[in-house]
């Protein structure tokens, strides 16, 4: 579905006339892009100068992490941008080669920590393909719920922090209030908020507690009102439109050539969504739409993410309606620990518990790669098994890393103040980039 881009507001900007008095310069909307009817006259058109290098980050609130941008400026116009990463390098992929498969799950929390449950699910999907096991129907639906709640958390943080970057404070408060409501749901389910470690190979850490589904239904019923308020506050607001329309535009061909995915790609008009094109967890049986933009600028990325929040609510409603009864873990002693009452009363169960914890499950020799549609784009885990309890190789395909590669092109020719909005529109998490 194409996102609405009609701008029904009178836009204006303030310039100075030759006497230094303020003047209003009207703007109009042509094809959804705001253009000036008449630019303010330059006071010193022939003033020369040298290019200047400045650093934004790695300790700057608007870089959303320890990202360093080296900008070459001609006045306030960006001539070149060189991104520097590696300030947060943790070595997740190498550490994973020395951990059992279930022991790697806490590391997936800490890559994109705004999508912890989504990362947990993505990793065990790859493990389960490696082990050759099929999860239960109840676990399948619960994982869909977990992934869509994570998508909502991530998009809310993006919407709130981007609003702060551009100067709108109220949507930040609304977004983080709803984010807190989701964290309460995850805390009741997994015992943690930010880093959940909510999955296990073959199932989940636990089934949802009593009354949890009613709380989820209440959230699904009330959350769209907040989205409507944000929509009313920002979508046609003159300042918001003026700070986002036409900035960092990427055509469909350019987005594909840079390997962009997620909202960054869909905002450029390419309707690629892993949930639709390479379905997993029975996503092909859910009724939802993939929002796409037309201009591929900061404004379209905002519209796409706003609509994706509504589509996540739509998926959650269907998941709640179809959630079946039954076990949440597979009945496979190679993967799942025995019940605690048996481990403390039966010798065989105690031995089985000890060996599974100390030695870990052992998949057959092989390799697997499973992509998912994370809030930031295509997230994939690739792992190679040599038949032992630890992967001989573990590699991550992080969408933040790939999407960030286009920032140099997107900011060139824009003003210094526009760099903040363009960088925010990429929606990066440095833990996923430096991994």
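Q: What amino acid sequence fits the structure above?
A:
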């Amino acid at each position: 579905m194409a996102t609405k881009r009609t701008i029904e507001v009178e836009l204006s900007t303030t310039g100075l006339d030759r006497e230094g008095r303020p003047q209003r310069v009207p703007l109009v909307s042509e094809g959804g892009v705001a253009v000036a009817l008449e630019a303010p006259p330059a006071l010193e058109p022939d003033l020369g100068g040298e290019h200047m290098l400045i650093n934004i980050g790695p300790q700057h609130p608007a870089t959303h992490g320890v990202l360093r941008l080296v900008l070459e400026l001609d006045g306030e116009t960006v001539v070149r941008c060189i991104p520097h990463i590696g300030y947060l390098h943790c070595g997740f992929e190498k550490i994973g080669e020395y951990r059992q498969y279930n022991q790697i799950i806490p590391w997936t929390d800490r890559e994109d920590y705004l999508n912890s449950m989504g990362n947990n699910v993505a990793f065990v999907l790859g493990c389960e393909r490696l082990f050759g096991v099929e999860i239960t129907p109840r676990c399948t639906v619960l994982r869909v719920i977990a992934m869509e709640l994570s998508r909502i958390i991530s998009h809310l943080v993006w919407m709130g922090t981007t609003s702060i970057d551009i100067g709108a404070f109220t949507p930040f408060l609304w977004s983080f209030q709803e984010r807190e409501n989701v964290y309460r749901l995850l805390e009741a389910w997994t015992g943690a908020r930010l880093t959940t470690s909510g999955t296990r190979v073959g199932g989940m850490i636990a089934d949802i507690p009593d009354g949890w589904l009613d709380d989820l239904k209440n959230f699904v019923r009330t959350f769209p009102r907040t989205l409507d308020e944000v929509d009313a506050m920002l979508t046609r607001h003159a300042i918001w439109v003026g700070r986002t329309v036409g900035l960092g535009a990427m055509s469909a061909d350019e987005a594909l050539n840079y390997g962009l995915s997620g909202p960054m790609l869909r905002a450029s008009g390419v309707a690629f969504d892993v949930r639709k094109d390479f379905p997993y967890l029975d996503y092909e049986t859910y009724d939802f739409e993939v929002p796409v933009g037309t201009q591929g600028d900061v404004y379209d990325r905002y519209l796409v993410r706003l609509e994706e929040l509504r589509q996540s609510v739509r998926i959650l409603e269907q998941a709640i309606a179809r959630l079946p009864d039954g076990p949440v873990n597979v009945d496979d002693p190679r993967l799942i620990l025995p019940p605690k009452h048996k481990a403390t009363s039966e010798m065989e169960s105690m031995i089985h518990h000890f060996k599974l914890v100390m030695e870990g499950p052992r998949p057959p020799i092989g390799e697997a790669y499973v992509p998912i549609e994370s809030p930031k784009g295509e997230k994939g885990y690739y792992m190679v098994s040599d038949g032992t309890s630890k992967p001989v190789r573990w590699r991550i395909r992080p969408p933040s890393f790939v999407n960030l590669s286009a920032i140099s092109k997107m900011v060139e020719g824009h003003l210094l103040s526009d760099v903040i909005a363009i960088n925010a529109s990429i929606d990066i998490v440095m833990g996923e980039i430096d991994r």
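Q: And what stands out in the fold?
A: The chain has 17 helices and eleven strands.
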